[in-house]
Structures are given as structure tokens and as C-alpha cells.
Amino acid sequence: MGNKGNIYKFKPKKNKKNKKSIKKKHLFLSILVIYLICFFSYQGFQIYSLKKQEKQINLKKAELEQQKSIYEKQLEQVNSADYIEKMARQSLRMIMPNEILYVPQEPFLESDDEEELENEEINE
Q: Which secondary structure element, helix H or strand E, spans residue 13, and what is its range?
């Protein structure tokens, strides 16, 4: 019976090899955990940066689409016959057949008035 009692009280010997291997495992796991934390933190930052950049690009896209629609409307207006006729009459002083062009004359200035006007333009 004395042997049976010793079996239950048996304690394994802790030697230096077991302690070193446990320390190595703990060190390896610690380094692995730190690496994973850094890796996922960096990935999270990258995702945040890309989403921010995507938002800015979408805002720029909306602005450009708005400008595009404005330019398309202007292009339609410029290509219309009424606009072309209006610009020809105003800019080029063109007239339709059987029309007479009246150009108002500028009021005649006396020489003293012309000199005063030139002096005012120079002073400005």
C-alpha cells in the first residue's frame, strides 16, 4: 500500500529545459501578438485613408459632372440659330438682306473737353 500512496503524490521534476522552452513559447507568442496588432492597426489606417480619398474623389466627380451639364447647355445654346444670329448682329454688325444698319455717333467733344477727358483717364 505504501507504493500506491506514492503514485498519487508524484510530482514531475521541473528542469531547466522545460522552463527555457516555456519562456521561448511565451516570447514567440508575445512577438506574434504584437506583430498581429501592428499589422491590423496599419491595415485599419489604410482602409480609413482610402475611404477618405474615395469620398474626396466622389465630391470632385459630382462637381465635374455639374460643370459638364452646364457646358452641355452652353453648347446647345451656342449652336442654336438664334444665338448665332444675335452674336453676328452684335459683334460683327451683320445685317439681314433688306435691312439698314444704324450706328449712333458719339457726341462731338470740343478740344478742351477732350484734353480734360484724357487727363482724367491718365490720373485714374
A: none
Cα separation, 34 vs 64, whole angstroms? 45
> Three cell numbers at 100?
439698314
How many residues would you count in the chain?
Answer: 124
Q: State the pLDDT at residue 81.
A: 87
Q: Which residue matches cell numbers 462637381?
A: 63
- Count Cβ atoms within 10 A of the Cβ of residue 66 and give its class: 0-12 exposed, 13-18 middle, 19 or more buried: exposed
- Give me the half-sphere count of Cα atoms (radius 13 Å) on the Cβ side of residue 78: 6
Q: How far apart are CA 27 and CA 115, in angstroms?
A: 96
Residue 53 has pLDDT above 90, yes or no: yes
Query: Would the pLDDT of 76 be above 70?
Result: yes
The x, y and z cell numbers of residue 94, run together, are 451683320
Note the pLDDT of residue 73: 93
What are the φ and ψ backbone dihedral angles of 111, each rounded to 5 degrees? Answer: -60, -35
- Please state the rounded mean pLDDT for residues 22-47: 94
